[in-house]
Amino acid sequence: MPTTQAIPRTAPTKQGAFWTAKQRDGHSIHEVSYRACYKPQLPAYFIERYAKPGQLIYDPFMGRGTTLIEAKLLGHNVIGNDVNPLSTILTAPRLCEQSFEKILHRIEQISLPTTEIEDEELLVFFEARTLRELYGWRSYFKARHSAGTFDEIDAWLQMVACNRLTGHSKGFFSVYTLPPIKPPHSMHSVRLTPSAIRSQRIATPRN
Question: Where is coiled-coil annotated (predicted)?
């Protein structure tokens, strides 16, 4: 019987610190609430070493957009997709430079429709006034989509609203991500105001 012999092969290897060192020094535009995400230093390590200047960067599982946004900050063109539609909502607006003055002006123009609470079980997570306003924002975005007037400013506001939807620290619309110990009437209210969107810094390419 003929026998085969494995041919030893060697591959070039590289070593370097690409994640743990200064992993919180990334651009604030990356700070979006999303499960199972990685730090921007990881894709930056590979992009800076293996991509040519201005080269197209593709991420087939873009999640919250960490790779695409880091590549954009490094001066690359980007394209990505994900089965989760939330990925597009969270990523696309942060790939374009925004005007805080225009966003502020839009917020001042918006008059949210009066809405009723459709699912009272959500009061476990949200204060009643906050929940009504969230329903109002949902109605506003749906109306803009239906009228064909949904623009990049609306996309930014929608991104901020989704980003701050649930969490247990200061600045989130909900009080807890899990059912709270305190009763609903003890919860505080958080509104989508200019101060709520100011923390989402504008992305500008690095030199």
Answer: none
